[in-house]
Amino acid sequence: MPVAHHEGEEMLESGYIRILTDACATGRRLTRDERESLRAGGERAAEAGTGLRELVREQLTAAESVRTGLPRQAADHLLSIVAEAVDVFAEGHERAQRLAVRRQEAARREFIDDLLYGRSDLGRLAERAERFGLLLSHAHAVAVAEGPEPYDDGYPVTRQVEASLLSRFGDRHLLLTTKDGRLICIAPGDQQDVLRYFAKQAYAATDGGRVAVGRAHPGPGGVVHSYEEALNALDLASRMDLDAPVLHAADLLVYPVLTRDRQAMADLVLSVLGPLRTARGGARPLLDTLTAYFDTGCVAAEAARRLSLSVRAMTYRLDRIHKLTGADPSDPVHRYTLQTAVIGARLLGWPEREL
């Protein structure tokens, strides 16, 4: 290979043959300066992209040229000097490789941060994205998975999910990474099969974690938008006690609409549900009753089962709610107002949090 040849020539010109000859002539080991020179040569070779195998071959070729003119005793010493020299040279080569990997990891992490936070010039961001397999001129969607513990790029869970995706889809212009302890998959917006598979694998790998999928949006800023939608879906699931393992932001658009005017929602909650605070035990038991009632499609028997109540007790609670609030949960006209207020209470953390 041409690169290896040039590196071999540089190695010979830099005094490698002289180092071997002098060491064999005196029977000494390599000096500190010689070791440092060889180590630096290994670093330069790695930075030039020359493989260690080619470099070792060049070293052995150079050693053979030295051995030809040496007396037998000196030639016997040559082997130990070459072994020492190869070891030092490899040390420098490996050090440079590790440094290059750390630089690549740092560049990748900086890119991920800029991409997910919408920092940096969008044109420049699109150029950098191509190095990582993303074409930001297309629409992209983001899926975010969280589990019982935080995850980083090198964690077994991360490697397991990544291996599954690569095995299934190969090079599909997708990117798997981590951010703030969560697994993140960025894929072209027209490849929802990738995100569905990621959600399935992440759910299994995180031992029952939760995955949220943002909608597809175009351009470099689309990744940020989709990522924020996924994060908001996870936050919403936590506040609303949604138990679905996979959440789609497109299915939850009603909730941001309801909370867009927070003060209006707080007024609705206090106006409609405020009287429940006068009940024995406070508002929480009756609020849970309404939640179960609406979650079961207003089937009192099923709601009673969920709350471990008798149907009679459930009916009593619903009647008590009607008397306190003036709104009948079984009346379609009143039901919408009550259910909207219940959703608002869950979103705002009432009654535990003052509004």
Structure, briefly:
The protein has 355 residues and is of the alpha+beta class. The chain contains 15 helices and 5 strands. It is 65% helix and 7% strand.
Plain-language structure description:
The protein has about 350 residues and is an alpha+beta fold. About 65% of the residues lie in helices and about 5% in strands. It has 15 helices and five strands. The chain has helices at about 1-15, 15-25, 30-45, 50-65, 70-115, 120-130, 155-170, 190-205, 220-240, 255-260, 260-275, 285-295, 300-305, 310-325, 330-350, and strands at about 140-145, 175-180, 180-190, 210-215, 245-250. The chain has a five-stranded mixed beta sheet, sandwiched between helices. Helix 9 links the parallel strand 4 and strand 5 (about 245-250). Helix 2 packs across helix 4, helix 3 (about 30-45) packs across helix 5 and helix 4 packs antiparallel against helix 5 (about 70-115). The model is unreliable at about 1-10 (pLDDT under 50).
